[in-house]
Amino acid sequence: MNTLETIEIDVSVELGAAVLPVHHLLRMGRGAVIELDAFENDAMRIYANNTLIAKGEVQVDEGQLNVVVTEKVIKPA
């Protein structure tokens, strides 16, 4: 098990995505809103080392945001 404890994995959760030209991004100020390609009830995408591994949802528990895995993504062989 000691070998597994030393492996680092970059985990990220994506709520949605948007494509913006850099000049639009540079003109944005505090409080600007970026429209994403997802709706509020859509599942979030969970990545490990930039590979999609699961989908999930956000839950709030005692002021803490939690990501709950709702579906594993099986990679086709």
UniProtKB/TrEMBL annotation:
Coiled coil: none annotated. Keywords: Cell membrane, Cell projection, Chemotaxis, Cilium, Flagellar rotation, Flagellum, Membrane. Gene3D superfamilies: SpoA-like. It is a peripheral membrane protein. Pfam families: FliMN_C. Residues 3-73 form the Flagellar motor switch protein FliN-like C-terminal domain. It is found in: Cell membrane. Belongs to the FliN/MopA/SpaO family. PANTHER family: FLAGELLAR MOTOR SWITCH PROTEIN FLIN, PTHR43484. This is Flagellar motor switch protein FliN. It comes from Pelagibacterium flavum. The lineage of its organism: Bacteria, Pseudomonadati, Pseudomonadota, Alphaproteobacteria, Hyphomicrobiales.
